[in-house]
Amino acid sequence: MKLSAVSTGTSSLLASTPANSPIDGYRDFKFGMTVSEVVAVAKKTCKSFSEKIGPTRVIGSRCYETGNNSENLELWLWASPGAAGQPVLVYVSNEAAPYSRNNLSALNEMVSSEYPIVSRMNEDKLKQVVNGQDLPVGNLYAGGQVALVVEWKIGPLKALNIYIRYCAPEFVAQMHDVFKS
């Protein structure tokens, strides 16, 4: 069994999965869960959450709270092959830390200690993102199921953040397309 969680000082950010197996989700959120199943888990693990439609997603705030540490999760559900057209969980995004070179380096070290890297972010693209370009840039790990992403968070307080994202095995090609160099 791989290490079930690595603490960054703010939260435990890595999925637990048997070595050499596809990643099956993030913590209690498993790929293939229906909207009602995701909402039931969010009710237990998040201080607050909301459902968004088009595409279906659940936003969880202050999830897995312990002391001063918690996680902000975005859970995306799409109609997946074999799911009879019903939206199921295929993608989890965890807001890991505000962007800094030190945070990026520490998170990359943490993630790469658990999952083999398959694609590194382009340094020129990273500079463009840091300078305000609104595109994500990231490293891919674990056959493309895990991404360490630098991206602008859009909202009332625009901020450059680092995310750890997980996708279901059938969506690896889409994740890889986003980060082509």
Description:
With 181 residues, this protein is of the alpha+beta class. It is 22% helix and 39% strand. It has four helices and ten strands. The chain has helices at 35-45, 101-114, 123-130, 172-178; strands spanning 25-26, 29-30, 46-52, 56-66, 69-79, 87-98, 117-119, 137-141, 146-153, 159-167. The protein has an eight-stranded antiparallel β-sheet with strand order 3-4-5-6-10-9-8-7, sandwiched between helices. β1 (25-26) and β2 form a beta hairpin. The termini are far apart. Residues 1-11 have low confidence and may be disordered.
In short:
The chain has helices at residues 35-45, 101-114, 123-130, 172-178; strands spanning 25-26, 29-30, 46-52, 56-66, 69-79, 87-98, 117-119, 137-141, 146-153, 159-167. It is of the alpha+beta class.
Helix content percent band = 10-25%
* Spatial sequence of strands, sheet with the most strands: 3-4-5-6-10-9-8-7
Gap from first CA to last CA: 32 Å
- Structural class call reads alpha+beta
Task: Provide the descriptors you would attach to this structure in a database record.
181 residues, alpha+beta, eight-stranded antiparallel beta sheet, two-stranded antiparallel ribbon, 22% helix, 39% strand
